[in-house]
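Example 3.2
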Amino acid sequence: MTNIFKIAFRNILIKKKRSLFIGLAIWLSLFLLLISSAVMNGAQKQVTKSYVNLQSGNVAVIWEDTKKVKSSDPSRLLAIQAFEAEKQDQNQRAIHRLETFVKDHSSEIQGYYPTIVRNAQMAKGDMVDTGKVFSLTPQYKERLLQSETVKMDQGELLSEQNHSVCISAAKAEADHLKMGDTVTFDAVTPTGATNSVDFVITGIYSDMAIYDNKYAFMSYDNAKELFHFDDGFFDMGKIFLKHPSQREAFAHKLDQYFTGDSPILRAESSETASSFFTTTSTLLKASFDFFVIFLLGVIALGIYSTIKMNLFGRMKEFGTLRAIGYSRFQCFLIIFFEYYFLSLLSMLAALIVAIPLVLILGHTGIYMGSGAITTILGGESVYPNLQIEDGIIAFLTISLFTMISSIGPGLKLCYQNITDLMLKRQRKISLFTIFFRRTSAGMAPRSNQGKSVGS
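Structure, written as tokens:
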């Protein structure tokens, strides 16, 4: 076996031009696979991160009307169906029970953020637009910034200045607003009354997905004042756990706790709260992987043809090996390991180029455009992220490539007669017929041979 490895590796080094040509084709395949996987990982992570941090938390605490909306509805957590004002006492009791539960399970909870998320009119002079008020606490603000869910262009996400607001760059451009401008928010309270409060723009955040650019971030106290909410009331409560993997069990436990008294409040894990966002990111990566597999299949056909032509030109070489005593199987192993070693070298080269590129682009991002595409990618830019399993998949892919590309041409070459190989004369043979006959000969004749000997 050692000699086979040596011959296979020597063939790579001796025929540098041939090895480089085939190696480049394999390198390109692997490079495309690694980069595309990294880009889709980045898009999937971005959509999931934005959804969890802005919409659901690890566990979403919602009101009974929201529970009635199908989880497949993408607007389920964007167009909040909040509490019913006429059930004031029941609402207050449910919120008190929630606060008690959160306190009792503080060892499991990283953060609990009661959030007001409601539409309001935003006006300045003749400009009138719709903004979605999104309340923040200082702790929630830090989470959004540290996780880079929200990135700032100018100013602060949550200013210490009273009656301050932070809007998106897209909203600022569309409504001709800038830092320091005063805008009036007109809101409808839960009782149906209207209220107006002036706010100063103290922050402008970078554009995200088109549905996230509508948020107008302000303090919880200011949002509570704008909508006339009582202390502790919210449109949705977001619970972030110290161990997010336990979100399903925690949500079930909290929901059982609610329904044991009065099901005005309900709890759902991030997967259940909006299946649209959790499945969309997964389907996005799966659909792109299908495209990549198709592309790699086309490249594999090219590599297969290249190897087939290459082996045809080397018939005399393998005829000589057969003549000096190498078996068909040993010759096939030489062919297989030659291309397998070449594939591994190409994979190493692809990793050497892809990893630094992904690290750079993971920091700077790849601008993909604005508008509708952001609903799929979760933002205007994608930040590639290469994972260990991507390398494993690439290794398995290239192993499969080598096997598929070499097994057919290699075996057909090895099953030629030695004289045909030496004369570079290739006969048309059927591997299926050869293996079928050999299998039949290995099974059936034994009984006949026994009879013959006995006779």
